[in-house]
Design a protein that fits this description.
The protein is mainly α. It contains 9 helices and no strands. α6 packs parallel to α9. The protein starts with a helix and ends with a helix.
């Protein structure tokens, strides 16, 4: 199963329009906020990126996670519609490779969303603040960190969608998990490792030790969810 074939499949879904529209909406959050309340933020002391992300990242991260959940549901809905998944099992294909292709595709689209958001943060910084030296490097660090923390959410969302034949069930589970994540205390490190809560963390304002703890924890979650997917496939096959 190749990525090109996955791209052909999504033409029959709203996957691309969802991510395109979601990226525009998420990117518009800081622009609208600054256009309405620029005086409030221009008087604050600190790095423009830290000020802008501190004011807008929670909403932007919420939209990012919602896009991942919705996109995961759409990708697997096409597989279960008209028993396509059962028919595909008769072909010399591994379900794990299909899952990996969908992970890569969703990661690529998530990166696209973050690039759009980084562009709007750069625009707001240039228009309403003074950009200092090292701005581009700081911007890349912040959104590279955000991209890394989103990976466990992507894998877990696709794993849930793979386990549920009904798209509305997986979507409902995803939405419940997102709102659960918003209710978890952000100052508790262990609870903040919940995959749907981790994307709300920011690089700006965090100390090096905390950043490294999240990076190591994210890498561990990626491995765990990858192994969980392989185990799930074997268990499901034994009951079919």
């Amino acid at each position: 199963m190749s990525i090109s074939l996955e791209c052909k499949k999504i033409k029959r879904t709203g996957f691309l329009p969802a991510f395109l529209g979601g990226s525009i909406l998420a990117g518009a959050v800081p622009v609208i906020n600054m256009a309405v309340r620029s005086e409030m933020y221009q008087t604050q002391q600190g790095n423009p990126i830290q000020i802008l992300l501190g004011a807008n990242w929670q909403m932007m991260a919420m939209l990012n996670v919602l896009l991942v959940v919705a996109g995961s549901c759409l990708l697997y809905h096409t597989e279960y519609a008209d028993n396509a998944m059962q028919k595909m099992k008769s072909l010399p294909l591994r379900e794990s490779s299909v899952f990996l292709d969908k992970v890569i595709l969703t990661i690529f689209m998530s990166l696209f969303v973050l690039v759009i958001e980084a562009g709007t943060i750069a625009f707001c910084s240039y228009y309403w603040f003074e950009i200092g030296s090292g701005f581009l490097s700081e911007l890349c660090k912040n959104f590279g960190y955000a991209f890394l923390l989103m990976l466990p959410c992507v894998i877990l969302s696709l794993l849930i969608s793979e386990a549920c034949r009904n798209m509305w069930v997986s979507l409902g589970i995803g939405v419940v998990l997102i709102f659960t994540a918003t209710m978890l205390p952000t100052d508790n490190f262990l609870l903040s490792l919940f995959p749907f809560a981790t994307p709300f963390q920011m690089f700006a304002g965090a100390d090096t030790e905390q950043v490294m703890r999240y990076i190591y924890s994210t890498a561990a979650e990626i491995v765990i969810f990858g192994l969980a997917q392989l185990i799930f496939i074997k268990i499901r096959r034994s009951f079919e």
